[in-house]
Q: What sequence folds into this?
């Protein structure tokens, strides 16, 4: 679960990191009154879950009310690489002496938290890693022991932080690590972590990802999930507990198990088709869940044909068949379906489908055959012939 | 021989009294796995179709002497149950539970490594382990696999069934099928299971089924080049996954260049591992390598 900048900053502040006072707003008028309240100069920042906001014109400095109004008006509603700006963060502009970088993430290979710190902040950290890797200090924290002040000071020193802010940087690193562990974060990144002329260490940006599986421990974080920037079908899917990701193509895909569904997308692509979605109905789906899943797939107008690829383990193929039959009764889809059923209760499932004789539903024997059939059917739909 | 589970397995199950737990435990017993007990705090003294239930792992170990633990408890209690089973001295832990917090997995992994180095954890968020004809521990639908000489190790459950089924239809069977799970911090990696298959007499070919995200496949490629003499055929799911989108498994997320399907396939191919582009192609390569002459089912 990715947080917007201002949500991340509020989390950082809760753990003792210094951030600028600011306000999240959704209208130009509120932006202006927030700016007046905070005091100029202010920075008006687009709140979207994508990088490169500055380059896209989504971050602007305003010296007075007129500028605040102008920038807020321009940025609200702006499309930043597919993300429409619905929220602005207005904060007091900071004076900057130095820009550092700090992050904590899970190193899946080492199976330890990895703390990265550099005095070359404010730019893409990947670029620093490539061009001057010696400027990055990478430190594995012992997940059981945690981060000590001694370690934090050593990291700041090794990276070459200014001598007079070593303690301030160490404080920031300790707070950063505390956010990572205590909030069940999978990533906490501050870029830049600035030093002001008054030698204060401060987070000017925040990128925080929280572990959705750990939200039961953090009821106060539950409300942070960002609904407004989400695809409406993806949001609906989340409410129903279905794993759905919208893609750009025209072939709807439903399968059970993330690996099999990803594999199905690949096989469809190899057959020359373009998947419209990833949908993992999960293990042990009953007819009702399958019916809802069909509704989700068809909510995307781009879908011209649908592929069911089921290899039942916990999932029973007869339940899948019942769900599809129920979906046809209620939704009456106008696009063709190709259905491949193997695994638990496959014989019963195929029989149910055969007896139901649903219009424009085609059984397939294998995954490859199913992919080829659905690609051919989608192509026919595209040229406008009746399916 | 097979790996990890066989006729010597003595299984106890945490969460045996739950709906899923009891269903799959009984399925495993029906397959022939020796099930010696279950653990559900507060339900000690009860039984599930004759399988005794204990209040704690300590008691289960003392009374029923399991050598394998299956964890079926809800995510928020799973880490504690894993560590309790390890503290009780159970050597092999198989965690089926999906949705365990990443930080719990991280602490569990490191605690096991530090305090119980002799304990092996498979999963979490995995389908378990099947050694056809010998034992089934987990939720793998055993009827689709035959006994044979192909070892399968996979991050994904249903994809494993797909590949195993293709291999079976090509006339071959499996020594063991090991699902290591798709979570960010799995207890065992591809490398751990490759090592077991390399040392297993019954296994003549290894199928490795990976997916986007992380670097486990790249590490497997390095290990294979240096330590595995048996032929390995690989599959990677997620060639068409868009960058930055999570596809169900916590592990299955692509960001930047590392961790993509193409990078993984190239890493494996550079080490001489053949990579099938579809599950069918994996089975075809496996058949080609093993040859029609090799005895399939035993």
A:
């Amino acid at each position: 679960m990715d947080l917007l900048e201002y949500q991340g900053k509020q989390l950082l502040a809760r753990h003792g990191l210094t951030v600028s006072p600011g306000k999240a707003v959704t209208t130009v008028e509120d932006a202006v009154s927030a700016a007046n309240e905070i005091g100029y100069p202010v920075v008006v920042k687009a709140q979207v879950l994508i990088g490169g906001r500055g380059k896209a014109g989504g971050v602007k400095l305003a010296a007075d009310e007129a500028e605040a109004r102008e920038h807020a008006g321009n940025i609200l509603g702006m499309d930043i690489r597919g993300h429409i700006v619905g929220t602005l963060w207005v904060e007091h502009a900071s004076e900057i002496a130095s820009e550092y970088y700090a992050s904590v993430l899970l190193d899946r290979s080492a199976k330890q938290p990895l703390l990265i710190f550099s005095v070359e902040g404010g730019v893409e950290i990947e670029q620093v890693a490539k061009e001057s890797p010696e400027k990055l200090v990478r430190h594995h924290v012992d997940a059981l022991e945690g981060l000590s002040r001694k370690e934090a000071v050593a990291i700041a020193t090794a990276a070459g932080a200014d001598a007079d802010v070593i303690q301030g940087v160490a404080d920031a690193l300790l707070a950063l690590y505390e956010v990572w562990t205590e909030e069940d974060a999978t990533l906490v990144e501050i870029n830049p972590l600035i030093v002001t002329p008054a030698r204060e260490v401060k987070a000017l940006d925040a990128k925080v990802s929280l572990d959705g599986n750990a939200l039961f421990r953090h009821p106060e974080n539950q409300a942070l999930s960002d609904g407004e920037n989400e695809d409406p079908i993806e949001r609906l899917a989340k409410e129903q507990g279905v794993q759905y990701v919208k893609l750009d193509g025209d072939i709807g895909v439903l399968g059970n198990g993330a690996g099999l569904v990803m594999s199905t997308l690949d096989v469809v692509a190899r057959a020359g088709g373009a998947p419209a979605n990833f949908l993992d109905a999960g293990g042990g789906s009953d007819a009702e869940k399958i019916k809802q899943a069909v509704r989700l797939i068809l909510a995307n107008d781009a879908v011209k044909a649908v592929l069911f690829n089921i290899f039942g383990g916990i999932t029973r193929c007869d339940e899948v068949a019942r769900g599809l039959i129920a979906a046809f009764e209620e939704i009456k889809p106008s696009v063709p379906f190709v259905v491949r059923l193997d695994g638990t209760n496959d014989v019963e499932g195929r029989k149910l489908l055969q007896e139901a004789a649903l219009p424009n539903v085609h059984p397939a024997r294998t995954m490859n055959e199913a992919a080829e059939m659905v690609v051919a059917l989608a192509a026919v739909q595209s040229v406008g012939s009746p399916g | 021989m097979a790996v990890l589970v066989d006729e010597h397995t003595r299984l106890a199950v945490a969460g045996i009294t739950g709906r899923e737990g009891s269903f799959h435990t009984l399925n495993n017993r029906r397959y022939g796995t020796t099930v010696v007990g279950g653990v559900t705090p507060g339900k000690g003294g009860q039984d599930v179709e004759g399988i005794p239930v204990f209040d704690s792992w300590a008691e289960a170990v003392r009374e029923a002497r399991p050598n394998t633990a299956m964890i079926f408890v809800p995510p928020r209690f799973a880490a504690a149950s894993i560590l309790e089973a390890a503290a009780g001295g159970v050597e092999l832990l198989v965690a089926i539970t999906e949705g365990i917090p990443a930080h719990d997995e991280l602490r569990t992994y490191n605690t096991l490594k530090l305090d119980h180095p002799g304990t092996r954890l498979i999963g979490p968020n995995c389908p378990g382990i099947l050694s056809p004809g010998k034992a089934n521990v987990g939720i793998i639908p055993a009827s689709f696999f035959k006994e044979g000489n192909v070892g399968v190790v996979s991050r994904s459950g249903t994809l494993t069934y797909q590949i195993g089924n293709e291999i079976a239809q090509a006339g071959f069977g499996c020594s063991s099928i090991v699902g290591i799970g798709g979570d960010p911090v799995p207890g065992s990696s591809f490398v751990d299971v490759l090592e077991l298959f390399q040392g297993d007499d019954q296994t003549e070919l290894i199928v490795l089924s990976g997916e986007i995200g992380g670097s486990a496949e790249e590490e497997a490629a390095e290990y294979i080049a240096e330590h595995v003499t048996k032929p390995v055929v690989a599959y990677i799911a997620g060639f068409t996954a868009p960058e930055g989108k999570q596809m169900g498994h916590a592990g299955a997320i692509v960001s930047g260049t590392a961790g993509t399907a193409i990078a993984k396939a190239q890493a494996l191919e550079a080490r001489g591992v053949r990579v099938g582009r579809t599950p069918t192609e994996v089975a075809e390569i496996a058949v080609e390598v093993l040859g029609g002459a090799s005895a399939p089912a035993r």
